[in-house]
Fold:
Amino acid sequence: MHQMTLAEIARGLADKKFSSEELTKVLLARITQLDPQLNSFISLTEDLAIEQAKAADARRANGESGALLGAPIAHKDLFCTQGIRTSCGSKMLDNFKAPYDATVVAKLAAAGAVTLGKTNMDEFAMGSANESSWYGAVKNPWNLEHVPGGSSGGSAAAVAARLLPAATATDTGGSIRQPAAFTNLTGLKPTYGRVSRWGMIAYASSLDQGGPLARTAEDCAILLQGMAGLDPNDSTSIDEPVPDYSASLGESLQGLRIGVPKEYFSAGLDPRIAELIQNSIQQLQKLGAVIKEISLPNMQHAIPAYYVIAPAEASSNLSRFDGVRFGHRCENPENLIDLYKRSRGEGFGAEVQRRIMVGAYALSAGYYDAYYLKAQKIRRLVKNDFMAAFNEVDIILGPTTPNPAWKLGAKNSDPVAAYLEDVYTITANLAGLPGLSMPAGFVDGLPVGVQLLAPYFQEGRLLNVAHQYQLNTDWHTRTPTGF
Ligand code: GLN
Structure:
């Protein structure tokens, strides 16, 4: 039962082959049995899951239908869940029970999805390895000595290990696409503003975007359908009609213009990954796509710009965690300053503190023009590069990451080494564009992802290209041994 995709579950539930309650119990038992190896969950919500599953079964018995009605999922632990711990992977929020549901959580619950639990993540979504969580590192089910990617590593590891079919995640600089690549999943970062950020604990507000992590493009379409749409509570959510994503999956790729940026194939790219990317290009050519070399000349500046802008926004967003209003408070503060200092010093881990300091520095008087303003100018250049490219091509293709998943601890002493791994993903966040990662093969038994980028609001195009590719390849069907 645990091997089923969301699409297969929807068919099975509609055909009354099993109930949502039965399936939910099977998956909860599987999580209890297998997750100790992975550490992919921070909280399990068994009682809520059974209650939601029973309610979904009752709705189906009353004649209701829907692809998500009775479908088991989990939420990255930065989506607020009413009355349930919402930790953001931090000691700071270990005792925080959200007073309301995030819009994404509420929408998916209304569609009948069943919440099995809250997944582990890098602290405040800062990271690419899921090693900065206060709840401990998450392991990659393909090799337990390797990282699953981050920051949505818990969602990725759980779905890859078939503990559940799909999960929500968020992507500020790659945190949906990179863990998807590292664990052989399909993950979609939507256009900025496509999915509401209300109730999603902020890391860098102008870059953060929620989206689906699943095994197939077909399942990403189903989950995105339940997440997307205008939300009056989020002033950056955009009033653009939500298409039927599943209906966009049948289109031919004949004549599709795929741009391959020459800058992507530089010295930093593992040649074995480059070869797998070439194979995926050939596969898409066989399906009718036309390949064109393009250039994204400002790509080299994207990492430094991102690692100024994201920490700058984080330093502002995280100022609300002051020991007074949310979360952790130190014991016996001597005065207000002592309360702030010790609560924040005890509540935040090393990476979060590092980013707050970098961000506050970049925003401070005297440095604002030199760093923050300059980074914003680069951001515009990165966006302009994409706009020029999309005048010539329909999608852009390349590797999701320059290397496969590294060993746990391998980059702990050198944060910049980890930042450099984001080179292919962060440009989409800087420009606000949608991006998808899908399985493209293996290197040393570790999965490799190919990334597709599209113009604003063309999530349907990305999902269709990935679906056509998946109809003709079987990488996405491979299962890690032991799971
Ligand atoms: N690795 C990037 C960072 O650490 C992206 C994280 C994310 O997308 N949340 O900032």
